[in-house]
Amino acid sequence: MKRPSIDIVIPVYRGFAETQACVESVLSAPVRARHNLIVINDATPERELAEYLSRLAAAGEIQLLENERNRGFAATANRGMERHPENDVVLLNSDTVVANDWLDRLIAAGEGGQKIGTVTPFSNNASICSYPMMLSANAIPAGWTVAELDRLFAAANAGMNPELPVGVGFCLFIKRQCLAEIGGFDSANFAPGYGEENEFCMRARRHGWRHVLAGDTYVYHKGAVSFGDPESLQRAATQRLHELHPDYTRLAGDFILRDPLRRLRLAVDEQRAAVSHEDALRVLGERTIYEDTLQGERMAASREAAKLDGALETCTGDLERIAAEVRRSAEESALLQGQLQSVVAE
């Protein structure tokens, strides 16, 4: 039997109900692509969760790997992605829910152009790939299921795969060739979680790999189920990311200001609004809130940019003064050297 071409890798630590919903959504989704479902138990403290995963493994539903000690998300993800070194990978958070032929559409997006390294779908909670409002942890629109929304995205944005600055790790399709060239996640700098996929994507960009959105795919993401203090982890990860990749902020900021995914979100809005009067009112309300929020964010970004420009001018002036002092010091040193040589000659 030919080996499946895709590994779906789910690192698990906490959250029995969320993990169960995630795994069962993968198992029940009617995808055509051959695939393995690999779940890694990162030494969960939840007995019910550990027993559930063991039962699934015993029934042959999943391939279960178990860490003897808690290794953190990045190292655990690496272990799963290394399971079959020839396969492409979908890294899936344990608090997600997939639907329909989601995997087939991710694969199609990954095959849609040269040097595509990663593919990310839309979600309710996925930073730059969030719907209905970008950069927000949105609730699912009232009256809609994940499967219904996913079908709406498939119809509204069929084959639309705009480029992203980086992928988003809640559901990230990664081409094996990219993994082989770039290596796995940086588990030394991003051990607990957060930021590891951005760092990976920035490394990949340096080698010419591209990151795209599967505009026709929607995956639900609850967010922060396994982490006790996500805000502090996010701050630390962001700081380290900026240290390793100083151009990350510029790339992300430019993307947010341009908002090239807006037309794809609007296409879904239009289809939702056509369903009923209530949906039309909800879409209108969401747009109003989003535009107000976006205006505030843009003003804040402009203020920060002005501060940075001012700081850069100050820094440039300081460097020029330092350079002048170095030149004077060199001249004085040369003069002193000449005087000493004269004294020695006498």
Tell me what the structure shows.
The model is unreliable at 336-346 (pLDDT under 50). Helix 10 packs antiparallel against helix 11. The strands form two sheets. An eight-stranded mixed β-sheet has the order 3-2-1-4-8-6-9-7, sandwiched between helices. Helix content is 52%, strand content 14%. It contains eleven helices and ten strands. The longest helix is centred in the last third of the chain and has 69 residues, at 277-345. It has helices at 16-28, 47-58, 73-81, 102-110, 146-156, 176-182, 196-206, 230-244, 248-258, 262-273, 277-345, and strands at 6-12, 35-41, 63-66, 88-92, 96-97, 116-122, 163-164, 171-174, 210-218, 220-221. It is an alpha/beta fold and 346 residues long.
Task: Give the helix/strand layout.
Elements (H helix, E strand, L loop, with lengths): L5 E7 L3 H13 L6 E7 L5 H12 L4 E4 L6 H9 L6 E5 L3 E2 L4 H9 L5 E7 L23 H11 L6 E2 L6 E4 L1 H7 L13 H11 L3 E9 L1 E2 L8 H15 L3 H11 L3 H12 L3 H69 L1
Helix pairs in contact: 10-11
How much of the sequence lies in strands comes to 5-15%
What share of the residues lie within helices?
Answer: 40-55%
Our Rg estimate from Cα atoms comes to 25 Å
Give the mean pLDDT. Answer: 88
Question: Strand sequence of the main sheet, in spatial order?
Answer: 3-2-1-4-8-6-9-7
Secondary structure class reads alpha/beta
Question: Which oligomerization state do the chains in this entry correspond to?
Answer: single chain
Largest sheet: 8 strands, mixed
Assign an overall shape.
globular
H-E order: EHEHEHEEHEHEEHHEEHHHH
Low-confidence stretches: 336-346
How many strand units? 10
